[in-house]
Specification:
By secondary structure, the chain is an alpha+beta fold. It has helices spanning 9-16, 41-48, 55-71, 78-101, 105-121, 130-149, 197-200, 205-211, 215-218, and strands at residues 26-28, 37-39, 153-154, 173-180, 191-196, 231-237.
Amino acid sequence: MSLPPHPGLFSTVERHCADSDPAPRLRFFDGSEPAGVPLSLEQARRTVYDRSVCDSGRAALWHQIAERAREAAEGSDWPTAVVWLGIPGLRRTARRLSHGFRVERGEVEAELVTCYLEALAEIGPDSPDPGGQVLRSACSGAWALWRRALPERAVDDVEVTGGARFDQAGDEFWEMDYAPAARRAGLSANVRITVPAHRVEGVRLGALARAWGVADTTAAVRHSGRGRRVATMSLRRGGRRG
């Protein structure tokens, strides 16, 4: 399947499938008809995301979607329709990734579609919750990729975080590395901040965090004996060596 890798990927697929109803149709199995009830593409998308529908019926639809992804004939509308069916489950993650990592929306959407199709290909006939498995795998895969791709951001002063410039060559200085725990929202990149030694004397890490605008994400960084790690901060002395 060839889809345009530009910022309107989801929108392009939506437009392409607006009046599409590829054959053969998906069928919904609720026990009323042994051969299942044929659904239009629009009906199928509403059904797979409708939690009031029986789990077995939704699972059967996802198995059929995976089958269409694997076996669609060349020239068929089904490859694009398969992506269209997954967009509602991917759209929120696309928005959060694009905003949180400041990545072009088109790149995020393309990666999500790739992860979604890969997850569909791995669905087995006995998977009890194929829809949830596919969407969780696709979204987790995209989050993992952007976390790996995001480089450490190093700064040689604190101007961009509310501090003042200083002459690093004329004074000893301290460096702080801030490494937040991997999570879906908030500051995710490692940040290194450098300040002159005389400004660090007698200042606690909490005060530094407030001065540099990360207090909201580090306020709970202390050992309580239980709970999850939210960040790691380390302070070291820099300056001239040798």
